[in-house]
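Dock nicotinamide-adenine-dinucleotide; give full complex structure.
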Amino acid sequence: MNDASQPHRPASEPIFEELGIVRDGSNLFHQTVDHVLVAADLAGLKHHQRIILAEPKNEIMVHFPVLMDDGHHRLFKGYRVQHNNALGPYKGGIRYHSRVSLDDVKALAVLMTMKCSLARLPFGGAKGGVKLNPRELSEDELRRVTRRFCSAISHQIGPHYDIPAPDVGTDAQIMAWFADTYAQMTPELSRQDVQGVVTGKPVAFGGSVGREKATGQGLVEVLAAMLPELGLEISKIAFSLIGFGNVGSWTGRLLCERGARLVAVLDHTGAVREDRGIDPRHLDEHVRRHGGVVNYSGATAIDEAEFYATPVDAFIPAALEQMIDAEKASRIAASVVVEAANAPTTPEGDAVLLQRGIEVLPAILCNAGGVTVSYFEWVQNRSATSWSAAEVDEALRLHMQAAATRTREARARYDCDLRTAAFAAACERIGEVYDLRGVFP
Ligand code: NAD
């Protein structure tokens, strides 16, 4: 019971102290572990289970040289963090971005553990990345970086151990180079086995139909399940997007197909607004040709301040982490923030949204569609079968609906916000499995 005379200590504080973690409020890994520990406490996880979740199992850091087109060699830094594999092989994307850092990769690996558990997938959580700006590298250079990175970590991944996938700055082509390199490094494995080492591959090379759009499609299924209780109908909402890459563009397209109206988009090149509705396919063509939304002729250019203040029903961040701070949260004019990106809201931003009565649908629920269809791809690779588009769509719909229901039920059980509820529902399953397995030896 709380002693009212004592200052409030977050539930995670004793564990941070025990593990010698000096809390830094701006550190995404600390923020993420904080969320997990608060939820683990609610879900009744035992002390040893909570300390296991507070640190990754393995943190791998590699440096490798790559020949650049101009003849010089550049040294790259890559990471693979394997957070937890209580539920199954490690699973998580590989990011190519100039701001990739160990602590951010650790945070994203924790989120993968939580996401896979919430979606009840037989996977643990991992994440990887290489610190580079893919826009500054030629296709040949990207291929050489991918092959060298894969070879550098090839002994620490595998179709039954750790299965990477695409994330920011990587795509199906990069996964194809990755799988091919892994095949060259492991001649003892069968071709069929090797294919399952990464997901998000091109369909012709062991990928699943529906993987490219899966994250956006999963988010639309979550909205279909969750909006009615907020008094909103998917076919009538106006929405805005930060980011128009894989997740943003597919979310835009699929929501508009259900009758919703896209009114504003912000990306790294600028922002545009059109209250009568932006055609997402048309915008997608522009972005593919010009690299971003800037100079799009179907809408008016606006500045960032106007983008955040544009009135919408749903505000959907689908770009990078930590974009919505307290100041931006105070300007958002929406009923609900739908987190398509991982960790797009800072704790301060979250507090402002809560205080303003703006509902937040958490990322580990909203963007779980990507890893869910990755799981379907892995199942297809392992069983040498191919599912039809209709089979993938239906299985994804059922998985996302179940995850949304699990989150809602946890909110009722623990009387908390949806983010804490999603984490608690994820922790429940991990605690249950640790109870059954015990701790070796
Ligand atoms: P992407 O590389 O395809 O697109 C990233 C988008 O972010 C681009 O439109 C880019 O312009 C925009 N962006 C970058 N910097 C920005 C800035 N400063 N301001 C505004 N916009 C900016 O990446 P993606 O695969 O669409 O991933 C987006 C988010 O979704 C990430 O958080 C990622 O981890 C998460 N996610 C992706 C998947 C997936 O299947 N791709 C699955 C789950 C979660």
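Observed: The first helix runs from residue 13 to 19.
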